[in-house]
Design brief:
This protein is of the alpha/beta class and about 675 residues long. Among the domains are: about 255-370, Flavocytochrome C3, Chain A, domain 1, CATH 3.90.700.10; about 460-565, Methane Monooxygenase Hydroxylase, Chain G, domain 1 (Up-down Bundle), CATH 1.20.58. It is built from 20 helices and 22 strands. Strand 1 (about 1-10), helix 1 and strand 2 (about 30-35) form a beta-alpha-beta unit. It is globular. About 55% of the residues are buried.
């Protein structure tokens, strides 16, 4: 048995994992990162549109601050998020952007003077302040009151990942590539590391660490069509689930992105609509104003995806060999804009569709995109059930997204969450000793070795590829954008059958090294358990909240369902997860549940909502008119982040002594805020 010791072990080399590793290394801790692939190929590179941070540099972002970003995030979550975490995130996002600048991210910058933009299908001229020249720019994104999404054309994730990985390289952080974690090493109370398999040689290793951070991304590939990279299979979540101790949170909260290209499902960024792109039906009609007259194409992602699906159901989709789709029209932005700010979209359309998006409409439809659920953590990123087990990014349910994520908040969460949680991970490593129990490690290594032996030498006949394809079909057909009781129950039943069949897996290729069939067999059993937590959680939640839309229970039910779903796996022979629930305390909320702003307000109110609103009014009244926004916020819901991150953010609009007009002759949002 090969043992490798370290202080801070990070599983996953995307933005979130690397940022935690950097925080550990900067504290002088021995740090090791495990990755399926070279770090610069992680799925973080696929993020196109940008990351949200309330810098307030552009005229359309004037007046933005942490309060507005926080409110947008809470409303976007459909009041399903942890508001303390949302506050921590909104406070630290500007700091993360500026840190990334120092690390070499080439943010798109503001150019002073007039420039043309497309707003609500019309070209308008906005006047950027002279003082803003050269500062970080921002574009519009769905569900936000201000232009807040910082970007580098439409290759933001690529730029961030290269900068952060280069920072990790400069700190000599080792990344063990082509290594897959297959089990957590734990004693039921504390996590001590992982058992990992070298995908090239087949060697099993035990990595022993003070802290173990899971940063493996989402679980989109349990679906048939997903914008996720093929490595986003939910294995990190499965490792926690299989401990029987650690719990997952909100696994039924799965987001579908409105504009993935047909048929391959590759994403076209929300920046297309943020920059002024339109959604059209088979008649060329711009239909979103019919459903959402205020926000139109820039309603929250879950809302736009549902409206598109509703419109297709009405027969307004474009027929194709791959099923009906709608059109994304960015031709009105002009060729220069497309080739400058949406160049990745242009290349994707040319390579996969053979079209020029500067003159042709893009065929799109909603496709699985993001996992709000994940390994349940507290505010420090640590799992409450297993001491020493941390999680960050899309692998985690931290829980700043609740039941729907705003565009731009995911890329932000990777580096902001990594920045915050990384400091807590480093604290944990410095405050705790390395516990080495070779017998415990060997028992987990032997368990994984026996699993491999059974697959390679056993009499099983089931194909892992067949089981996986069936799982993907079930999830796509029955646990999609719109859900209902009978289909969800069918999904659970059929997935349980597949999990039973997975006990009889067999391989045609008997190699123990560099064997894709073995890799698939090891993963599919774990993926099926993750799929069952999603389906069972969705079947049990008899309400609609955010991306979880029950056709048979269309109301958001704060009275009975203002809680977080927790999932655990009882034992290895179980076919169903155990579900429990964690209540969200309205009386501790800074922003009590209210109307989200889309469609009709049909929410069933929580009995404490009115009480909390009255309490907030009294608290603010006692503070008086002289209290500033920081004092008001702290009085309502005090929050903490590591001391090094507590300083207030500075913004251009705080220093401007004159209003700036967005459109000549009209008052801008910035003027209203100033």
């Amino acid at each position: 048995m090969k043992l490798i010791y370290t202080d801070s072990l990070v599983v996953g080399a995307g933005l979130a994992g690397l940022r935690v590793a950097i925080a550990s290394k900067e504290r002088g801790l021995d740090t090791v990162v495990l990755s399926l692939i070279p770090a610069k190929r992680s799925h973080s590179a696929a993020a196109q549109g940008g990351m949200q941070a309330s810098l307030g540099n552009t005229v359309k972002g004037m007046g933005d601050d942490e309060d507005i970003h926080f409110q947008d995030t809470v409303k976007g979550s459909d009041w399903g998020c942890d508001q303390d975490v949302a506050r921590m995130f909104a406070h630290c996002a500007p700091k993360a952007v500026r840190e990334l600048t120092n690390w070499g991210v080439p943010w798109t910058r503001v150019t002073k003077g007039p420039r043309q933009v497309v707003v609500n299908a019309e070209k308008v001229t906005i006047e950027e302040a002279e003082e803003a020249h050269g500062l970080i720019n921002a574009r519009d994104f769905g569900g936000t009151k201000k232009w807040r999404t910082c970007y580098t054309a439409d290759g933001t994730g690529h730029s961030l990942l290269y900068a952060v990985d280069n920072k990790a390289i400069s700190l000599d952080i080792p990344v063990h590539e082509r290594v897959e974690a297959l089990s957590l090493i734990h004693d039921g109370k504390r996590c001590h590391g992982v058992v990992a398999r070298c995908m090239i040689t087949g060697e099993l290793r035990a990595y022993i660490a003070k802290s173990t951070t899971i940063a493996t991304g989402g679980y989109g590939r349990i679906y048939e069509v997903s914008t996720n990279a093929i490595i986003c299979e939910g294995i990190g979540q499965a490792l926690a689930l299989e401990t029987g101790v650690a719990k997952l949170g909100n696994m039924e909260a799965v987001q579908f992105h409105p504009t993935a290209i047909v048929p391959v499902g590759i994403l076209t960024t929300e920046g297309c609509r943020g920059d002024g792109g339109l959604l059209r039906d088979k008649d060329g009609h711009r239909f979103m104003p019919d459903y959402e007259p205020e926000k139109k194409e820039l309603a929250s992602r879950d809302v736009v995806s549902r409206r598109m699906t509703e419109h297709i159901r009405k027969g307004k989709g474009v027929d194709s060999p791959y099923g009906p789709h709608l059109w994304l029209d960015i031709t009105l932005l002009g060729r220069k804009h497309v080739e400058t700010n949406l160049r990745e979209v242009k290349e994707i359309c040319e390579s996969f569709l053979g079209i020029d998006p500067a003159k042709d409409w893009i065929p799109v439809r909603p496709t699985q995109h993001y996992s709000m659920g994940g390994i349940r953590t507290d505010k420090t990123g640590q799992n409450p059930q297993l001491k020493g087990l941390f999680s960050v990014g899309e692998a985690a349910c931290w829980d700043m997204h609740g039941f729907n994520r705003l565009g731009g908040n995911s890329l932000a969460e990777t580096v902001v969450g990594g920045m915050i949680i990384g400091k807590y991970v480093a604290d944990f490593c410095q405050e705790n000793t390395l516990e080495i129990n070779t017998g415990l490690a060997e028992s987990f290594v032997n368990k994984v070795r026996n699993e491999v032996d059974e697959l390679v030498e056993g009499p099983g006949t089931e194909s892992p590829f067949v089981l996986r394809k069936e799982m993907e079909r079930i999830m796509m057909n029955y646990v999609g954008i719109f859900r209902n009781g009978p289909e969800l129950e069918k999904a659970v039943t059929e997935l349980q059958v597949l999990l039973k069949r997975a006990k009889n897996l067999g391989l045609k290729c008997k190699k123990r090294h560099a064997n894709p069939e073995l890799v698939e067999a090891l993963r599919v059993k774990r993926m099926l358990k993750v799929a069952l937590t999603v389906a069972c959680g969705a079947a049990a939640r008899t309400e609609s909240r955010g991306a979880h839309a029950r056709e048979d229970f269309p109301q958001r039910n704060d009275k009975d369902w203002l809680n977080r779903t927790l999932s655990s796996w009882p034992d290895e022979n179980s076919l169903t997860p155990e579900l429990s629930y964690e209540e969200l305390d309205v009386m501790k909320m800074e922003l009590p549940p209210g109307y989200r702003g889309y469609g009709i307000n049909n929410a069933i109110a929580h009995p404490d909502t009115d009480k909390r609103e009255k309490e907030i009014t009294e608290i603010l009244s006692e503070l008086g008119d002289n209290a500033d926004r920081y004092q008001r916020q702290q009085a309502l819901m005090p929050f903490e982040v590591p001391e090094a991150l507590m300083a207030r953010n500075e913004r251009l609009c705080d220093n401007l002594d004159r209003p700036v007009s967005a459109v000549p002759g009209e008052e801008s949002e910035g003027e209203q805020a100033l």
